[in-house]
Amino acid sequence: MTSSLSYVVGPTDPPLIEQTIGQALDTAVARWGAREALVSIHQDVRLTWAEFADAVDAFAAGLLELGLDPGDRVAVWAPNCAEWTIAQFATARAGLIQVNINPAYRTSELEFTLRKVGAKAMICAESFKTSHYVEMVEALLREAEDPLALRHLIKIGGDPRRGWLQFHDVGADTNDGGRSRLASVAAELSNTDAINIQFTSGTTGSPKGATLSHRNVLNNAYFVGRGMGLVQGDRLCIPVPLYHCFGMVMGNLACLMHGATMVYPSAAFDPGAVLRAVELERCTALHGVPTMFIAELEHPEFYRFDLSSLRTGLMAGAPCPIEVMKKVIGRMHMRDVGIAYGMTETSPVSFQTTVDDSLARRVSTIGRVQPHLEVKIVDPATGETAPMGEPGELYTRGYSTMLGYWDDPDKTAEALRDGWMQTGDLAVLDEDGYGSIVGRLKDMIIRGGENIYPRELEDFLFQHPEISEAYVLGVPDHKYGEEVCAWVKRRDRSDLTEEQIIDYCRDRIARHKIPRYLRFVDDFPMTVTGKVQKFAMRQTMIDDLGLDLDGSS
Ligand code: AMP
Q1: Is the predicted pLDDT of residue 553 greater than 50, yes or no?
Q2: Ligand 1 center–CA 221 separation, angstroms
Q3: Which tens digit of pLDDT belongs to each residue from 387-409?
Q4: pLDDT tens, position by position, 311-335
């Protein structure tokens, strides 16, 4: 439905699913129990849905036997692995609230999150790369001035260690008593209960714990999978982090709802491992943030891999450049690939292109609003719904809206008004209801009173054949208030100069949008979930160019 105002409502058919994650797992076992549920290549693990559900039930019963009660918070701190997902389903099965901890966190962030939610148990990997998780937890417990609520420490793999239970021992010898306790706990659960807290990666400020229910995430996973044409027998390669909605909802739970196999190529993103996993496991679908697809396409051995099994998948999490989408379709065989847009607080997806959309729309828009959701675009200056076609802040409302930020009524009230989640993203809707993200509210550049949307310029720069990636931001300027700055990564072996880029811009875009500052880089400051940290880039420019915050230089 569309009107002359920027307001759209998604279809209401099929109806929402009113199950808990545990019930959905039972349904999956009944429907496709003998099919593969999970393949973790780097761990050499392969489980059918029936085997996976057994492991989940045993671990869930084990958690209850430790003395945990429904509603207790259980933190999970590990890179991608089978145990992460067993913990995800087991906590939901037992009504415990899983708290996802970013594997890149160090002790001060860990302490903040554990205290904020009062976590009673912690499940963590022993170590990964430069992070020794177990030692960090021990140091925190030893050195913390006030005691934490943590009572149970569970470690994935490695040798036995004092004070820690081994993951595979929890629930390993659970008996009928343990299982019947689990069944009676499960019978009391409601699908509107909180089961997950995700600390939003945020590009600024202290992390906030978006709290989600079974109903939030299961329905989102169902509609996401449906939109990308995921069906029984599909094999979805999941290189995105599980601790983020992209992995655990759009990956894991979408597979649960549609009978697809979750395939993990590696503990953390590695483009070569993704390409190998697709070839070896004959994956039919692949997810990724834009930078992951770029890294896969630019892998030196890209053409050696047989990716012909691929058909679909989603690019999401950050602006998806048209050129990259086109290459994913043309070179990676992902003819049905789509774009999804969302945020943790909305479980996550609210817009998605579907397999039925035209190619042009699939590569250049975020698609249409998801079923059962409402969206409006609000003029930030007036707070009124903007006319169709005018940019403004995107608001979403519906089943997918989080329950709130954990223990943060003020921040919840700031973000949610009358059930509307204020996303902070700037978007435009067209007459047919297709959306486009034009930037972040706080990233919009106002140069001499003219609004400049970084996204438009980024897409433009991307079209240059020698540019691999480009990000555009505003920096303070004495005369105009803000000036346009672009950070550009050139393709391998390109010797493109600043003058050549400016010349390229000159004939093609309005003068006021041509970057005043241009910087060549090899890497961008990024969050693990593929979001470029423009505040860090802005600060670098301010420091390097000696720009004062008041705009003088
Ligand atoms: P997170 O809560 O970490 O999932 O981050 C959500 C944010 O990612 C959104 O508010 C957007 O700024 C950004 N984002 C997600 N998907 C897209 C997309 N398809 N296009 C542009 N930005 C996106």
Answers
A1: no
A2: 17
A3: 999 999 999 999 999 999 999 99
A4: 999 999 988 889 999 999 999 999 9
Cα–Cα distance measured from residue 352 to residue 342, given in angstroms and rounded to the nearest whole number = 9
* Sign of the dihedral through C-alpha 183, 189, 190, 191: negative
Residue type, 300: P
Could you give the CA distance from residue 433 to residue 513 in angstroms, rounded to a whole number? 28
DSSP letter (8 states) at residue 370:
P
The pLDDT assigned to 203 comes to 43
Best probe residue, ligand 1, of 228, 531, 532, 534 (max atoms within 8 Å of C-beta): 531
For residue range 444-473, list pLDDT tens digits in order: 888 877 788 888 889 889 889 999 999 999
* Alpha-carbon span 93 to 61, nearest angstrom: 9
In the chain, count H helices and then E strands: 17, 28
Q: Which residues pair with 487 in a beta bridge?
A: 471, 519
Compute, in degrees rounded to 10, the torsion defined by CA atoms 114, 119, 121, 123. -40
Angle between helices 290-297 and 322-331 (to 10 degrees): 50
- Residues in contact with 420: Cβ distance below 8 Å, sequence separation at least 6, in sequence order: 376, 395, 396, 397
Cα distance from N-terminal residue to C-terminal residue, the chain: 50
Expressed in angstroms and rounded, the spacing between residue 120 Cα and the centre of ligand 1 is 31
Is the CB of 534 inside a 6 Å radius of any atom of ligand 1? no
Counted residue by residue, the chain has a size of 553
| Ligand 1 atom nearest to CA at 246 | 4
Element (H, E) at 241: none
DSSP letter at 148 equals P
What is the rounded CA–CA span in Å between residue 149 and residue 175? 28
Adjacent-strand bridge partners of 285: 236, 312
| CA of residue 82 to ligand 1 center, whole Å | 26
